[in-house]
């Protein structure tokens, strides 16, 4: 299968190329970058030296459509919708890594992103690209929107609890911690190593944009209006997310009963690992153990006195949180075995 | 004033010595360590070379009592109570850095620590060593118990909200992030650099011990039973705590109204800085900007849609979270200006 | 092909398992650990959860010999020689990851390790496991000794210079920098995250053991006695080595002439990448761009005024420096394509 | 004494302010920044909140000269010489933190910096600001040029060896490792946290500019032409330098004899600590133990077989490598006790 990548010079684009160059069923036809057109890919992504001999092209949608079966779009939020709309009309399949087609309700773009969506009709044709939520729809989709990196961790941790309606849905707290690659490669005072190193910086304690997609997907699961309170933090690592979902149970449930809810939902999912070790050192999910893989590790603990559940999930934000999900979606759309090109053991310690 | 330090070979003991060697009103008479007796202090704490020429002694309470006006006790939880009791009977003033005299209710030791307190009568004579809460009592105390490092950050962030009774006290979430020095110097698989580096490890998602002292102190402020749900995380840094306190407001309050509550409480406190910058890069508290100082930076953000407040506090766990609080308590007990020996600007970037 | 791993609970053992579980021509028959016998492998190496369902066994050489075509031995220096000798007599092929069979001259064990080698006759039967140096011998060997992690980086950088006799061989300085995984998983004060983080700690400025194998292999290349002065440093990362080899040229050589020497030697080597970018950001080898791969990136710069060459090499100490080399040796010994199971793109940024 | 700081918005300027706000004999009259004029200092340097209430001014040399006894100039190399010349003519004392007045020979600016020095006559009036080298001259100087951060570590380690003429001066290798604050605060792809984290990046393996000042000062000590080969590396920390100076002894000297050379030179220096512990964990200098202090820790090891000495030195690049040296020079120039305002214990662990 021939694929192209639009916007391949950033962190997510580079990670996508890392996956695609060793994917056994894929051939990369074209990679584009406005800023780096004409440069060899391996000058910008030195890791890829000896794996890819292409240069970045300027974006040319006709050429991309001609030479590719599927096109990945990896450009900033707000820049993607025009490109995707143009590609969509040409009939090519699209996997979008921006936020521009994640939300279904056009009003949500005004609320969370501050702009009116220019192609509201296209929103209903896009599928939210989490196979663990929408596998069947993804199979037949022309346009798939990969999820927000923190959103997908929260959603995977909360799904069994919401689907089984065991939570007080007015007091759900989503406290995320994420490495510096999650903010993209834009250089600035706040991302300079000396100033970013060693921080635990709450960067949007209220009203973070991922709240929108989390609420949308949980609402779909539950058929009611769910309120999620999200607070992300920048922490001192490059890759990795831990999302700590604090919630209150509507009724008493034992640990065993809750495990059953999780196992029922995720028993057959290859990229969701359920984590709990009562006596060992590694009792709960920790991004340390998923780096460079497509896993989302999920686990929980119970605070019986407060009837609180702490549902935790860990993933690599560039993998399950971005490029890994994109390739997983590719596999589903193309009918490949879902693990094709993604059978990476996490790299630990690193 | 002559002081002694019992248990000075660990991280907290080392930090305490760092402060005491440059404290203008203090002379260190004796430092003890069971494990390092006979060694020069600077062999164990190489930073202190040229500042201190003492060797560690074995603990001898008579000698300590004879040669010291105040004794700091910096030994592990559960090991301190016997020593403190023996010192107390000798009439010397004591600043204890363990948890052994923080809780007032003997039953709380069974609940949170799993052992019966051997000196329950002494608990009522101990003062919880947060001057911002109990300054007057500390002045006259013979025994002061320094607070838990995460507890004090949470307490300082929540005090204005609890004291003014604006919170729904059934849904308070305390999500803490702390560096590796907070766990003490005990070497093991989980603290090995290669395995500890890069983690975001939830290490006691429910029922963490600091919950006990937070609830105790908030109850005292509010005269009602408050439920706190605490989850600490080990993160990839050595020093520093950020505590994110998520809570729900009982009624609508504007940002300005809440700022007034904070200013009323902390306007004259030298070690609590109120942080908010609407437009800059540094909008909220971040341990990055308090390292090596005794500050606790406090700030908040409002999530009006969910009527949630996110109250954040940042400190250096070895300073305001341990040795800095101990010296602040010393200054209060001794009648020194409270900033004596603690006028450190934070070290940034580091 | 069936393989076993003796001593699989450490960092190197874990990395070896990471590679073997996805190696397409290998089946793991048995993994042993004295300390962890009976435990599931994924409790000790949580990353491997869902990839391996074995438990650690006690070491039983008869069973290993029966069930394995090749046995990897990954135990500490000085503990390996007895095991390897016993396996050797049983006729099984062995890939040893310790230092016990790297040196050819038994006296060198006294000099560098401080003990007499108990099986001096076996030293001549062992092949130093760097395919770029000894590929043909490895093909037919029963026993291969994987190189020291820093040694192999230095050797690969210096080979073209020594083989072409262009260096003053009395003033070769090898200044290495290595992450914390290189020291093994033994917990102690010096490896505790809080004390190991942020160091640049010279840990054996003179007489480091790897000097012995570097000199041995360079002597073989040059047929003269070469003096290497090595100084390793522990730096603040988990994986990765940069070795800076400072040397003086015997005669003037242009940059172009030296590049030819490197290209002649490494033009066909898949795991040695030659790095130089005159104008980009990434001009020289940097472990950042080889993490989790089996590459050793090599490059150099010239200091014409002092007739000095700085030859730099970067690798992942757990990969090309240990487990990756072991699998590369396996491929050579077994007649597999040398890249089998090792076609990993480096993980960047991480 | 009233002081001003020109260019106070960067890392070095911020560190200088950190020191000056608690210096007991200094009052800050004016701080300037072209980019940040009008902003409160604590918005740019949040650590300084509650220590300083000034705003940045535009640079006005008349006002500075009127209101200050000494002016610190902390602007980029090449930008300083004009400002310093203008200040010099006004008769005010100047402490320059750039490279613009470090070198004595105008030709060296062409060689190392690529530009002709516009005020060559002023070079002879400037004193190289290392009190351990030029204390007497600094006392009477109007213009002092603070040394390069890596240069001063190398110089302090080599001084006793050069002054006593024990080295082969044709084969001196200076291998430096430095944290990210050393490169200044300029944001870019190479300094982005995600790309700078985890590197060991050789950034100018040959011909680094600090070579010029090291050679200049060693030549002065020895009265002969010394060749230094320097290679700096960016490593994964914010503060700190370790410089490993590899050199060869002209004749056999015992460890004890060499210690005597060091003690004779540094026995009375308060900011140079001699480090060696035969049996402990902390045997050699390590920046870990000098962070936030003005110390340069110096030590060595001998490689008798190669007659090599490894002389190591560790400092905090923002302190002894920049702002700390500047304040030390201030103290010397003003006749204060040299430790005034610099009696900081290093902050460890951090």
From TrEMBL, chains A, B, C, D:
Family annotation (CDD domains): AGPR_1_C_LysY, AGPR_1_N
UniProt-annotated catalytic positions: 149
Protein name: Putative [LysW]-L-2-aminoadipate/[LysW]-L-glutamate phosphate reductase
Keywords for this protein: Amino-acid biosynthesis, Arginine biosynthesis, Cytoplasm, Lysine biosynthesis, NADP, Oxidoreductase
MF-aspect GO terms: N-acetyl-gamma-aminoadipyl-phosphate reductase activity; N-acetyl-gamma-glutamyl-phosphate reductase activity; NAD binding; NADP+ binding
Primary gene name: lysY
Entry's Gene Ontology BP terms: L-arginine biosynthetic process via ornithine; lysine biosynthetic process via aminoadipic acid
Entry similarity comment: Belongs to the NAGSA dehydrogenase family. Type 1 subfamily. LysY sub-subfamily.
EC top class named in words: oxidoreductase
Domain of life: Archaea
One Pfam family named in its UniProt record: Semialdhyde_dhC_1
InterPro entries, per the entry: AGPR (IPR050085), AGPR_dimerisation_dom (IPR058924), AGPR_type-1 (IPR000706), LysY (IPR037535), NAD(P)-bd_dom_sf (IPR036291), Semialdehyde_DH_NAD-bd (IPR000534)
Positions annotated to bind NADP(+): 9-12, 317
Localization: Cytoplasm
One cellular component (GO) term of this entry: cytoplasm
Pathway: Amino-acid biosynthesis; L-lysine biosynthesis via AAA pathway; L-lysine from L-alpha-aminoadipate (Thermus route): step 3/5; Amino-acid biosynthesis; L-arginine biosynthesis
Record field: catalytic activity: [amino-group carrier protein]-C-terminal-gamma-(L-glutamyl-5-semialdehyde)-L-glutamate + phosphate + NADP(+) = [amino-group carrier protein]-C-terminal-gamma-(5-phospho-L-glutamyl)-L-glutamate + NADPH + H(+); [amino-group carrier protein]-C-terminal-N-(1-carboxy-5-oxopentan-1-yl)-L-glutamine + phosphate + NADP(+) = [amino-group carrier protein]-C-terminal-N-(1-carboxy-5-phosphooxy-5-oxopentan-1-yl)-L-glutamine + NADPH + H(+)
EC number(s) per entry: 1.2.1.103, 1.2.1.106
Chief location bin: cytoplasm
SMART domains linked: Semialdhyde_dh (SM00859)
Boundaries of every Semialdehyde dehydrogenase NAD-binding domain copy: 2-141
Function comment: Involved in both the arginine and lysine biosynthetic pathways.
């Amino acid at each position: 299968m021939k694929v192209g990548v639009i916007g391949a010079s950033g962190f997510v684009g580079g990670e996508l190329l890392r996956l695609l160059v060793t994917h056994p069923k894929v051939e990369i036809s074209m990679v584009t970058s406005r800023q780096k057109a004409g440069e060899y890919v391996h000058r910008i992504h030195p890791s890829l030296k000896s794996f890819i001999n292409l240069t970045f092209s300027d974006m040319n949608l006709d050429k991309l459509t001609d030479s590719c079966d599927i096109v990945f779009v990896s450009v900033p939020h707000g820049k993607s919708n025009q490109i995707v709309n143009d590609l969509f009309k040409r009939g090519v399949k699209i996997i979008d890594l921006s936020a521009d087609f994640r939300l279904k309700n056009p009003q949500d773009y005004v609320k969370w992103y501050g702009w009116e969506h220019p192609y509201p009709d296209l929103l209903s044709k896009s599928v939210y690209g989490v196979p663990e939520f929408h596998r069947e729809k993804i199979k037949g989709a022309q346009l798939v929107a990969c999820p927000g990196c923190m959103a997908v961790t929260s959603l995977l941790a909360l799904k069994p609890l919401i689907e089984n309606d065991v939570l007080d849905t007015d007091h759900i707290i989503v406290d995320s911690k994420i490495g510096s690659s999650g903010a993209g490669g834009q250089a600035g005072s706040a991302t300079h190593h000396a100033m970013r190193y060693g921080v635990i910086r709450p960067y949007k304690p209220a009203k973070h944009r991922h709240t929108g997609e989390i609420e949308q997907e949980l609402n779909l699961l539950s058929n009611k209006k769910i309120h999620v309170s999200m607070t992300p933090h920048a922490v001192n690592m490059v890759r990795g997310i831990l999302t700590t979902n604090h919630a209150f149970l509507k009724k008493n449930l034992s640990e065993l009963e809750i495990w059953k809810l999780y196992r029922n939902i995720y028993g057959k999912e290859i990229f969701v690992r359920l984590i709990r070790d009562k006596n060992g050192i590694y009792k709960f999910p920790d991004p340390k153990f998923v780096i460079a893989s497509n896993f989302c590790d999920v686990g929980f603990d119970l605070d019986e006195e407060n009837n609180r559940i702490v549902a935790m999930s860990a993933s690599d934000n560039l993998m399950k949180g971005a490029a890994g999900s994109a390739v997983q979606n590719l596999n589903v759309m193309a009918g490949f075995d879902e693990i094709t090109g993604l059978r990476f053991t996490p790299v630990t310690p690193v």
